[in-house]
Amino acid sequence: MLTKVQIRHVLDTMTEMFPDAECELTHSNPFELTIAVLLSAQATDALVNKVTPGLFEKYKTPEDYLSVPLEELEQDIRRIGLFRSKAKNIQKLCRSLIDDYGGVIPQERDELVKLAGVGRKTANVVTSVAFGEPAIAVDTHVERVSKRLALCRWKDSVLEVEKTLMRKIPRDEWSDTHHRMIFFGRYHCKAQSPRCTECPLLDLCREGKKRVKVTG
DNA sequence: CTCCCGATAT
DNA sequence: ATATCAGGAG
User: Fold this and answer.
1) Which residues of A are annotated as catalytic?
2) Do A123 and A49 reside in the same domain of the chain?
3) A176/B2 CA-to-C1' distance in Å
4) CB of A155 under 7 A from strand B?
5) Contact of A181 with A146, CB cutoff 8 Å
6) Shortest CA to C1' contact from A185: nucleotide
7) Does residue A94 have a known ligand-binding role?
8) Is A25 inside a domain boundary?
């Protein structure tokens, strides 16, 4: 585990590398953001962004998503993958938005996670990006980067990773750090071929040192 | 824990 | 061919 000074160094380095890191899912309101994040499970942002422009043009309100047969919505999002469960969740989500929330995405995380297809990670993204509430959404990138850099323990669950990061990072830096860690993981500390040899954090990364020794 | 699933990189 | 992708439900 890293010291306080080392963690400060990690945060500052990521800020230098990705000063403008932000949500890359295209959206223009909280409802579109929620749909986009739901669709992004086990899919790349790039692919989601290819589908959502047409989707958001066709479906603008919860009522719109409920106005077509399930099979039609499935075909509209088929390219993203996991399309059957996602289409079903979208219609269930829209039904409860109309029935229980006045057709509007709720701002509280405890309410968001009650929506179909919305778990803790998606809820954290929505509260943070759409409503400006400090949060750290632990996705595959944040988990991988946190474990490689020993910001948390290797065996930690995603919930434990989130708690650890919230404890070690100042609250007013949660959202920016969260996005910088995603960029760092997506473009630099990648799952398959991480750029360890050109990494400014290699000296405090056990995983990177091991990897450099093996691969050269 | 398993299952859902197509697109893309390696 | 296989791993991975802004996970969540059962």
Assistant:
1) 121, 139
2) yes
3) 34
4) no
5) yes
6) C6
7) no
8) no
Indicate whether A154 pLDDT > 70.
Answer: yes
Q: Say whether both A153 and A61 belong to one domain.
A: no
- Global pTM reads 0.96
Residue ranges near strand C (C-beta within 7 Å): A 22-25, 37-38, 40-46, 81-82, 85, 89, 116-123, 125, 129, 137, 139-141, 144, 178-179, 182, 185-186, 190-192
Q: Measuring from the CA of residue A50 to each C1' atom, give the nucleotide at the shortest distance.
A: B7
Q: Does A23 show up as a binding residue in the annotation?
A: no
User: Is residue A110 located within the same domain as residue A42?
Assistant: yes
Which of A99, A130, A161 represents a domain boundary (last residue)? Answer: A130
Same-domain pairing of A87 and A168: no
Query: Do residues A125 and A157 share a domain?
Result: no
Protein A5 CA to nucleic acid B2 C1', in Å? 41
The gap between the terminal CA atoms of chain A, to the nearest Å, is 25
Count of domains observed in chain A: 2
Contact A18, A189 (CB under 8 A): no
Contact A41, A203 (CB under 8 A): no
Output the CA torsion A45→A47→A49→A51 (10° steps): -140
- Statement to judge: residues A148 and A208 lie in one domain: yes
Specify whether A13 is located in the same domain as A55: no
Residues A63-111: tens digit of each pLDDT: 999 999 999 999 999 999 999 999 999 999 999 999 999 999 999 999 9
Distance, in Å, from the CA atom of A48 to the CA atom of A37, rounded to the nearest integer, reads 9
Question: In this predicted model, what pLDDT tens digit does every residue of A121-135 receive, in sequence order?
Answer: 999 999 999 999 999
